[in-house]
Design a protein that fits this description.
This protein has one domain (about 5-315): Sulfite Oxidase, Chain A, domain 2 (Alpha-Beta Complex), CATH 3.90.420. Helices cover about 15% and strands about 20% of the residues. It contains 9 helices and 12 strands. The protein has helices at about 10-15, 15-30, 70-75, 85-90, 115-120, 150-155, 195, 250-255, 300-305, and strands at about 100-105, 110-115, 125-130, 135-145, 165-170, 190, 200-205, 210, 220-225, 235-240, 275-280, 290-295. The radius of gyration is 19 Å and the shape is globular.
Length: about 325
């Protein structure tokens, strides 16, 4: 897909077709115009990307970072709306505290925990990760969070547990996007347990040296950097250990486009666009800068490729 200018971009090119068609019907029902649904780039003034305040770690990328303004105002977070700028505009009054996370399923330690009980703040780390969206754009963001593996170990899942499922808050009064039947609320996502125990995934509470903005999933979200962005569930209030592969939101809605694994693979195209290249949003750039090649596993293959040995890479999407 060659993009020239914002006016050329159709909603169906930036949003899954099933959701796009539902949105048009919803807007028609509400008597609203669809003229404003075309994608617009972030209009906020961009500041220089924050330089790394420490030596790069073994998981960090040294690539140019996306500005905080870009990363916090250009998002997919359908709980607050389906346009990229909706989360920043519509989440301003969202109160992310108090916050509890329910842990259930096949684990020794379960129950409802205050966020400060659920996380061990002493284990919080900063990681500078590439983030790849299925819509062929990407960012480089310094996240702050606790390794998911550490959190899982603290709940002592049983030997029968093979998967971990995450659930987003369902609260239409606070999340206006949930007032429309765009998705099957609440949003759910999952990982195979050995994927979740890899050292890369983070349960994130901050970015760019500050608390996580509401638009990016405050107070708690998941980051799995070798997978497409829809695996990075936001506003997490539930974590469950299961023996069987869970049903997840996007896989259930459009299984021909969004699979359970969602591993970044430039050789497997999305049904409606190529995944072989991407547009990087970085400080000083725009949405329409030149494409760069997409890396297998988003560049993290040395850390995760072994998890899929013997599996058909075309089925990992």
């Amino acid at each position: 897909m060659f993009i020239r200018r914002a006016s050329d971009i159709l909603p169906s090119q930036i949003t899954p077709e099933t959701v796009y068609r539902q949105r048009r019907q919803i807007l028609k029902t509400l008597g609203l115009s669809v003229a404003g649904l075309a994608l617009s780039a972030c209009g906020a003034e961009e500041l220089p990307a924050q330089p790394a305040a420490r030596p790069l770690g073994k998981f960090d990328t040294a690539e140019a970072q996306t500005s905080f303004e870009q990363a916090s105002t250009y998002n997919n977070y359908y709980e607050f709306g389906t346009d990229k700028e909706d989360p920043a505009k519509r989440s301003k009054d969202f109160k992310p505290r108090p916050w509890r996370v329910e842990v259930s399923g096949l684990a020794e330690r379960t129950g409802s925990f205050d966020l400060d009980e659920f996380l061990d703040p002493k284990k919080r780390e900063e990681r500078i990760y590439r983030m790849r969206c299925v819509e062929a754009w990407s960012m480089v963001i310094p996240w702050m969070g606790v390794p998911l593996a550490d959190i899982i170990q603290s709940f002592k899942p049983s030997s029968k547990a093979k998967y971990v499922t995450f659930r987003t808050l369902k609260d239409p009064a606070r999340m206006p996007g949930q007032r429309q039947p765009i998705l099957d609320w609440p949003y759910t996502e999952g990982l195979r347990l050995d994927e979740a125990m890899n050292p890369l995934p983070l349960l994130v509470t901050g970015m760019y040296g500050r608390d996580l903005p509401n638009a990016n999933g405050a107070p708690l979200r998941l980051i799995v950097p070798w997978k497409y962005g829809f695996k990075g569930i936001k506003g997490i209030v539930g974590m469950r250990f299961d023996e069987r592969q869970p049903s997840t939101t996007w896989e259930g809605l459009a299984p021909d486009e969004y699979g359970f694994y969602a591993n970044v693979n430039p050789e497997v195209d999305h049904p409606r666009w190529s995944q072989a290249s991407e547009r990087r949003l970085a400080a000083g750039s725009s949405l329409f800068n030149a494409r760069i090649p997409t890396l297998p596993f988003n560049g993290y293959g040395e850390h995760v490729a072994h998890l899929y040995a013997g599996m058909d890479p075309k089925k990992l999407y």
